[in-house]
Amino acid sequence: MAIDLVDSSGSPGPDPEALRAQAAFLLDRLHLAPETEVSIALVDEAEMTRLHVTWMDEPGPTDVLSFPMDDLRPGEPGSPRVAGVLGDVVLCPAVAARQAEQAGHGLDRECALLLTHGMLHLLGYDHAEPEEHARMFALQDQLLAAWWEVSAP
């Protein structure tokens, strides 16, 4: 698996190796080929604001943005796995840190949630409609529970 991670956030952030391991775990659990490529970028609030305004026409920074590439979808157990370039997940550790504090958990946990959320968006999941929201968040919860089970110290 080609999992690139670039940290230009300039602030304390999540463990990069944990993010790479989680991305590999998610690709496997979602039945994507080992050759699938995904990029993770950690950016500062100024860059996240720029991206948020440019691509979403929304003001201010956000926690995570996803930029899909090859229009990949999750595979099925036992079926051939599809490979390609999944896309980019952009996280803002500064925003994630504030959210983690409000939620009462650590930054690594918040970034694990955001990475899962972002990767599901890369695979075509959305939460604009109630039915989509229920489906995406149920899968997100399942994936996070499984990740925390295997990654717990």
3D structure, described in words:
With 153 residues, the chain is α/β, with parallel strands linked by helices. The protein has a single domain, classed as 3-Layer(aba) Sandwich (Collagenase (Catalytic Domain)), CATH 3.40.390. It has helices at 16-29, 45-56, 93-103, 107-122, 130-151; strands spanning 2-7, 37-42, 64-68, 85-91. The protein has a four-stranded mixed beta sheet, sandwiched between helices. The radius of gyration is 15 Å and the shape is globular. The mean pLDDT is 94.
Sum this structure up briefly:
By secondary structure, the chain is α/β, with parallel strands linked by helices. Helix content is 49%, strand content 16%. The protein is built from 5 helices and 4 strands.
